[in-house]
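User: Last request for today: this protein with adenosine monophosphate, please.
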Amino acid sequence: MLDGWVPWPESFARRYRAAGYWEGRPLDRLLRERAAADPDRIALVDAAGDRWTYAELDRHADRQAAGLRRLGIGAGDRVVVQLPNTDAFVVLFFALLRAGAVPVLTLPAHRESEIVHVAETAGATAYVIPDVLDGFDHRALARAARKAVPSIEHVLVAGEAAEFTALADVDAAPVPLAEPDPGDVALLLLSGGTTGKPKLIPRTHDDYTYNVRASAEVCGFDSDTVYLVVLPTAHNFALACPGLLGTLMVGGTVVLAPTPSPEDAFELIEREKVTATAVVPPVALLWLDAVEWEDADLSSLRLLQVGGSKLGAEPAARVRPALGCTLQQVFGMAEGLLNYTRLDDPSDLVIQTQGRPLSPDDEIRVVDEDGRDVAPGETGELLTRGPYTLRGYYRAPEHNARTFSDDGFYRTGDLVRVLPSGHLVVEGRAKDQINRGGDKISAEELENHIMAHPGVHDAAVVGMPDATMGERTCACLVPRAGRSAPAQRELAAFLTDRGVAAYKLPDRVEVMDAFPRTSVGKTDKKELGRRIAGQLRTEDGGVH
Ligand code: AMP
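Assistant: Here's the final one, the structure of the complex with adenosine monophosphate:
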């Protein structure tokens, strides 16, 4: 068993097994079983049109698993994976599981600051990267990461390896490998984070397989499903809700999109006759507009899942008329709990709510600031526990003490109300995080970086309303005495230099003499947010 994670109490584990949620199957079996049942079916298609049958994918994963073992990467080893939406990701994911290693999934956008922290926390022994992606050389990042995190012994590169090992050379004749304990951690996902640095989310074979299987059922996935991966494969939504794993589990076909742009995605939808996909609200908005001028044939599309941040009721209502498919709202978290509107829900629930819990055993509490349950229908913070919701972040005991109740409920930091039908409406957020169109930014993490700037005395990062992204990021700065605070461009360059991912860079900088304070003397972020929003309205008013 991996150490440093918090398993479910045995009484709960027994219950989840008895209810049939946890089936005692390693996660990689979903591929093995489909490959045995339907070897010649197409499992995977990449953007270039290269096709993999289930048998080919399965065989390749076996060979790479043997190659990993030969390198000395095996049971319980944590491997940081940072690959774009390519077949290399899919093969590697299964190969790592088969070798008994634990993939730690990071986004292609992450940079030194995030990668070093994640590799350090995970105690990673290997790091897998593309060579160059969008003009950024990941091998340079790997050099820096290796220097900072000596536990990284291997760097594997999809592409030109330079001094590292080419992923293509990680290949050997398949060897029999012991199957992992299904109750053990299968992979580590990244949380958006509200404090300091991103946290690692342990997901077990049992819980993640259930997450995938139950999601595939609710979403009506079957062997005719052709699922387009638009979001990064490392994101829980695209990976497992039901995502690429859910599609493979039922024998469907996964198509990989290089970007979510309407040009790329629409072309693939037409070419591969895609039936289902998942996007964040800004991408949905883009697509809703693009159908007016793109003439691609989208008639195969039956299901558009939208989640990651809140989709407004107005764009939600436009999905069926514009795209001709069913909308499904998804309010989920890599920590576990998933809420889906159901395919046969009446349209007002689909348009107005963010869905209801996936599992009959998802327990939901909605509490006030003192932790007391609010009256039914009132808004409060959502707490949850269940058969696929974590009981603690990986190696984060102090954070866990704050984030989980004594009886194991996860405090989501989301403000919701529950309708009599059981559907949830997301009303806002209690956590100090900006949700920039689905990308999560921890205010505290960014403030810590900004405060390292010599011109900054104090920093407060708040969200500002934005029609497309839902929110964008505003950094409020108090300059250091006798110095001037950096302008937006300078601050962005400074943060980039510190290895901060581009999506975290502030969209706006506001310099002020002092911050408003709460009655106990803390920075009043609510007031700051109101001021910025007011200012934006004035500026808008000035334009029109
Ligand atoms: P992640 O771990 O990136 O999946 O982020 C999970 C968080 O994203 C949730 O706790 C919410 O704050 C937010 N979120 C996800 N889906 C939705 C949605 N449909 N509506 C509003 N917020 C959402």
